[in-house]
Specification:
- By secondary structure, the chain is an alpha+beta fold.
- The chain has four helices and eleven strands.
- The strands form four sheets. Strands 7-6-10-11 form a four-stranded antiparallel β-sheet, with no helix packed on it. The chain has a three-stranded antiparallel β-sheet with strand order 1-4-9. A two-stranded antiparallel sheet has the order 2-3.
- The longest helix has 18 residues.
- The radius of gyration is 59 Å and the shape is rod-shaped.
- The N and C termini lie far apart (127 Å).
């Protein structure tokens, strides 16, 4: 306590010097302010009766440190360090921005991808009657066969297959279902005939039949009568006997497909 009283006396002396009780050496305003600030700090530090001093007093010689007293209530106030923010109180930016999937099981299998590629669609096919579209006539597929010559009768010009070829004949019949004769001429219509045999394609040959064959049909059919018309193809001999053939007949955007 004696040391505290001594320091307080020194501080009081310094203050008295600053207010004019003694002659001071020439000092600047800045130095004068520093001396006053130091003196005031000493008073606050070592005055046991000043309750709001900023620095706690050292322990007295008796080993008991002066307590800090709350001016308003008179109760002893305990200065506690500011608690650090609780990391669990608010989510981190990463967790705050994460959606419901943030807690998803990483071992869970992903949903299968759905293919958005549309499946190719086949061109719609129509009947022979809708394709040829001749009023009063009905077109029908009859048969198909392999052969070395056509026709076999002696009343027509015979078509013979070359040595390394075989003929493939596709037969149709055309019936006049009306009560008037119908003159037919298909030479001016752009029909395309294509045979698919064993994965290969072939086009019909020029027909030497009296009515020109189906691809060059030119005839007159009387009411209620039926006329035969054929398509003749020259195929490689190793194709002979091949089954599951198809014939496509196309005009513009319309197509008729026949299983032979």
């Amino acid at each position: 306590m004696k040391r505290g009283i001594f320091r307080t006396s020194v501080a009081v002396f310094l203050v008295m010097m600053l207010v004019g009780c003694a002659e001071l050496p020439n000092i600047t305003d800045q130095q004068e302010n520093l001396v006053a600030e130091y003196a005031g700090g000493v008073l606050l530090r070592y005055s046991g009766k000043y309750a709001l001093r900023l620095v706690k007093n050292d322990a007295d010689e008796d080993g008991v440190e002066d307590s800090v007293t709350d001016v308003a209530s008179g109760a002893a106030a305990t200065v506690e360090p500011m608690a650090s923010p609780d990391a669990s109180a608010s989510p981190s930016p990463a967790s705050a921005s994460a959606g419901p999937d943030a807690t998803a099981d990483p071992n869970a299998s992903e949903a299968p991808e759905v293919s958005m590629t549309p499946e190719p669609t086949e061109e719609p096919t129509i009947s022979l009657d809708d394709l040829y579209h001749i009023k009063g006539l009905k077109f029908t597929y009859v048969s198909s066969a392999y052969g070395n010559r056509y026709p076999s009768s002696d009343d027509a010009i015979e078509i013979t297959a070359p040595a390394d070829k075989v003929l493939y004949i596709v037969n149709f019949k055309i019936k006049n279902t009306g009560n008037k004769a119908v003159r037919v001429n298909l030479t001016g219509r752009p029909f395309h005939y294509e045979l698919n045999v064993g994965g290969d394609t072939a086009l019909p040959t020029l027909s030497l039949l009296p009515n020109g064959g189906l691809n060059y049909l030119m005839t007159t059919i009387r009411p209620g009568k039926t006329e035969k018309a054929s398509l003749i193809f020259n195929l490689d001999r190793d194709k002979r006997g091949t089954k599951g053939n198809t014939l496509s007949i196309t005009e513009g955007e319309k197509t008729a497909v026949i299983d032979l």
